[in-house]
Write a structure and sequence with these properties.
The protein contains 9 helices and 7 strands; from the N terminus they run αααβαβαβαβαβαββα. With about 230 residues, the protein is of the alpha/beta class. The chain binds S-adenosylmethionine. The site of S-adenosylmethionine has 24 residues, from helix 2, helix 4 and strand 2.
């Protein structure tokens, strides 16, 4: 496959279904057309090294789902959560071997349990197609909290935005101890979009050591996962 994005890529399957759902539910759909393949490639590029288990939020017509499978994520290791019934139906037909769940991103642990996806444990990344910019801070916080409860330590929350800065509100980032980093910019998207990667600082358990024993030296490079892959 050519890595060069084409202006003339055909619309993804289900683009008309997507547009109809946008007419009916403009606030929750939050975009007039599905994301481009260029944006999907930039999102997938931010997966951590050796990434196996991924949750996708707001699958829509499946542009990111397709890119995740093409990247090598196994069907059984992928769960796609979609709130809209018609889009959920479309996704289930298009990706019969993926865990496609009709549910709310705010309730991921319960959704994962019901979909039979929870038993294999935490996930390496959450890739979000949600329109976070149009959501209240409260809703953003519930979604991010739910996502980070599923992520392993060092796991990544990958999000795009049509705006110039990270779409997760500053107070939400502070409340959840999140850091963000800017990823790629998709010029061939309607409208153009920037990718952001969020990670959570978690306090490490401090090992008790008897008085007078020397402190252990840290092994490894000391780099975080997010730094190590760059
Ligand atoms: C901006 S569209 C993106 C669709 C697709 N990922 C893409 O990039 O083309 C947002 C999608 O998120 C879904 N959605 C909105 N709120 C949701 C929620 N709380 N839980 C799960 N999905 C949600 C919408 O139904 C819609 O399909």
């Amino acid at each position: 496959m050519s890595s060069k994005p084409s202006r003339h890529e055909p619309p993804p399957p289900g683009a008309w279904t997507f547009f109809r759902q946008w007419l009916r539910h403009p606030l929750s759909i939050a975009a007039i057309s599905p994301s481009s393949r260029q944006l999907a490639r930039l999102m997938v590029k931010e997966l951590p090294p050796n990434c196996e288990r991924v949750i996708e939020l707001g699958g829509g017509t499946g542009v990111f789902t397709r890119a995740l499978l093409d990247h090598g994520i196994a069907d059984d290791n992928l769960m796609v959560v979609e709130l809209n019934e018609e889009l959920h139906h479309h996704l289930s037909r298009r990706f019969p071997d993926v865990h496609v769940a009709l549910g709310d991103a705010r309730e991921l642990p319960a959704v994962a349990k019901k979909a039979g996806y929870a038993d294999a444990g935490q996930v390496d990344a959450v890739i979000s197609g949600l329109g976070l910019l149009s959501m209240s801070h409260e809703l953003q916080q519930q979604i991010l909290e739910s996502a980070f409860s599923m992520l392993r330590p060092g796991g990544r929350f990958i999000q795009f935005t049509y705006g110039p800065v990270c779409p997760v509100a500053k107070d939400v980032q502070q409340a959840l101890k999140l850091r963000n980093r800017r990823g790629g910019f998709a010029v061939w998207n309607m409208p153009p979009a920037t990718v952001f990667v969020l990670t959570q600082a978690r306090s490490k358990a401090v090992e008790a050591r008897p008085m007078g024993t020397p402190r252990k030296r840290r092994s490894g490079s000391g780099k975080s996962d997010i730094q190590a892959s760059r």
